[in-house]
Automatic annotation (TrEMBL):
A family per Pfam: N_methyl
Coiled coil: none
Composition skew (Acidic residues), residue ranges: 230-244
InterPro entries: N_methyl_site
Protein source organism: Butyrivibrio fibrisolvens
Claim: Membrane is one of the keywords in the record: yes
Keywords (A to Z) from UniProt: Membrane, Transmembrane, Transmembrane helix
Protein name, as recorded: Prepilin-type N-terminal cleavage/methylation domain-containing protein
Region (Disordered), start-end ranges: 222-244
Lineage of source species: Bacteria, Bacillati, Bacillota, Clostridia, Lachnospirales
Presence of the UniProt keyword Transmembrane in the record: yes
Transmembrane segments: 20-44
Length: 244
């Protein structure tokens, strides 16, 4: 039988309608697969970002807790000890200085309320969404040499004794402790014995908030001279105790 004698049905190809249907089916299948793949990738990225943000926030909480706990002279708040602050100095006794000067000088300074210390500064920049931490000149973590002036057991003033030990006056050049920070406030409570910390880290639509307290290592209430009111109160208490 000659090939030219085949029925027309055997020589007929795909019709335009059939091609359109096939293309439409392939497009739908491709769209579904693409949506599933995109959804999976987005879900993975979001979970990964959530995990990173959670890990970052927990690490920041641990770091802040450690810095405050190690502050054997407490904290200094530029805005005042009774106010919440987004910037503060962590103060520790300058043991190297008093090792050279002797214990008598140390005791005298503690009674007078003028104590040589080492400071590390923690500051929050709301515009940048970052917390900065500096503890000396570039490459140094020894702390900034300062004199902390105490009154009634609270730090009233801090003076840097060596300007060259400071990293920079521009806070944005300081080492970054954490980013993605949307809120950060610290307040000393309970007569300078406890520090309350409020902070929040935010990325995209995810936010982690923390509100916790940290107990200071030392009771600083005995540092420095007493105000006249407190001295009178102490005298009255002593006299009352004596009468009884």
């Amino acid at each position: 039988m000659n090939n030219n004698d085949r029925p027309d049905e055997l020589n007929k190809g795909f019709s335009l309608v059939e091609l359109v249907i096939v293309i439409a089916i392939l497009a739908i299948v491709g769209l579904i697969l693409g949506t599933l793949i995109t959804t999976g990738i987005n879900l993975y990225q979001r979970q990964n970002k959530d995990l990173n943000l959670q890990t970052r926030s927990q690490l920041l909480q641990s770091q802040i807790t450690t810095y405050i706990t190690n502050a054997d002279l407490g904290l200094y708040m530029p805005e005042g000890s009774d106010e919440s602050s987004s910037m503060f100095a962590v103060l520790s006794i300058d043991n190297e200085y008093y090792k050279e000067k002797g214990s008598a000088q140390k005791q005298s300074d503690f009674e007078n309320g003028t104590i040589h210390a080492r400071a590390a500064i923690i500051a929050y920049d709301s515009e940048q969404g970052k917390i900065y931490y500096v503890a000396g000149a570039e490459g140094s973590a020894d702390g900034i040499p300062v004199i902390a002036e105490f009154e009634d057991g609270k730090v009233k003033k801090v003076t840097i004794t060596d300007s060259e030990s400071m990293y920079s006056d521009d806070m944005t050049t300081w080492p970054v402790l954490s980013d993605y920070v949307s809120d950060f406030k610290v307040k000393v409570v309970d007569d300078a014995k406890v520090v309350n910390v409020e902070m929040a880290l935010e990325y995209s639509e995810r936010i982690y908030t923390y509100d916790f307290t940290v107990a200071l290592r030392n009771d600083t209430s005995l540092y420095g001279p007493k105000s006249s009111e407190e001295s009178e109160s102490s005298a009255e208490e002593s006299e009352s105790e004596y009468r009884y």
